[in-house]
Amino acid sequence: MTGEATASPAPVRILLCDDHVVVRAGLLALLGSEPDIEVVGEAGSGEEAVVLAARLTPDVVLMDLQLGAGIDGVEATRRIAADGTVHVLVLTTYDTDADITRAIEAGATGYLLKAERPEELFAAIRSAAQGRTTLSAPVASRVMARMRSPRPSLTDRERDILAQLSRGLGNRDIARALFISEATVKTHLGRIYDKLGVDTRAGAVSVAKEQRLLP
C-alpha cells in the first residue's frame, strides 16, 4: 500500500500595521523568507488595520504603537482583540512602562521590540498564532520589575484627582469637581506621574487600573 502524504500545516496568516512604507516593505521581505508565514494584508493606520483585520481575519496582526494621525496602535489593538479571534503582536521601538501596560491591557498577545533578531520575531509570531504570550527580554524585565515593586503610595487628594482623570475630565473640570485651582491640579498630576512612572494622562490611568489604585 502507498502511504498517504502528510499535509503541511496551514501557514500563519499575518496582517502588517505600520505607518512607514519602508518598514512594511522590509517586514514583507523578511517574513516572505519563512514558508510557514504568509502576509495577507498591509495597513498604514490604526483605522485601516481594524477594517482589514475584520475583513481578512488573519491569525496575527503585527502592530506598531505610533501610527501618526488617527487612532494609535493601542486603540487599534483594543478594537481588533475585542472579539478574541485575532491575536495582536505589538512590534515597536517603544518600551516604556506606560506603553507596555497600555498595550497588554488592550489585549495584545505579545510585545516585541524591533531590535530583536529575525528568528525571535518568527518564533513570536508562531507563538502568538497559538495564543501564547511572548515578550522581548527588556520588556519582560520591566514587567517583572513592576510586579515586584510595591504599589505607589498616593495621597487621598491624588486618588481623587486620579479618579476624575479616569473619567476623561480635563484639568479645568477636575478643578471644578474638587473645588481646587487648576494650578493645584497640575501640581498633583506631576506628583502622580512621578509616582506611577508615566508621562501621560492615559498612562497614569492605565497604570492605576493595573495596580488597582482606582476606587
From TrEMBL:
<dbReference type="InterPro" id="IPR001789">
    <property type="entry name" value="Sig_transdc_resp-reg_receiver"/>
</dbReference>
<dbReference type="InterPro" id="IPR058245">
    <property type="entry name" value="NreC/VraR/RcsB-like_REC"/>
</dbReference>
<keyword id="KW-0597">Phosphoprotein</keyword>
<dbReference type="InterPro" id="IPR016032">
    <property type="entry name" value="Sig_transdc_resp-reg_C-effctor"/>
</dbReference>
<dbReference type="InterPro" id="IPR011006">
    <property type="entry name" value="CheY-like_superfamily"/>
</dbReference>
<keyword id="KW-0238">DNA-binding</keyword>
<feature type="modified residue" description="4-aspartylphosphate">
    <location>
        <position position="64"/>
    </location>
</feature>
<protein>
    <submittedName>
        <fullName>Response regulator transcription factor</fullName>
    </submittedName>
</protein>
<feature type="domain" description="Response regulatory">
    <location>
        <begin position="13"/>
        <end position="129"/>
    </location>
</feature>
<dbReference type="Pfam" id="PF00072">
    <property type="entry name" value="Response_reg"/>
</dbReference>
<keyword id="KW-0805">Transcription regulation</keyword>
<keyword id="KW-0804">Transcription</keyword>
<feature type="domain" description="HTH luxR-type">
    <location>
        <begin position="147"/>
        <end position="212"/>
    </location>
</feature>
<dbReference type="Pfam" id="PF00196">
    <property type="entry name" value="GerE"/>
</dbReference>
<dbReference type="InterPro" id="IPR000792">
    <property type="entry name" value="Tscrpt_reg_LuxR_C"/>
</dbReference>
<dbReference type="InterPro" id="IPR039420">
    <property type="entry name" value="WalR-like"/>
</dbReference>
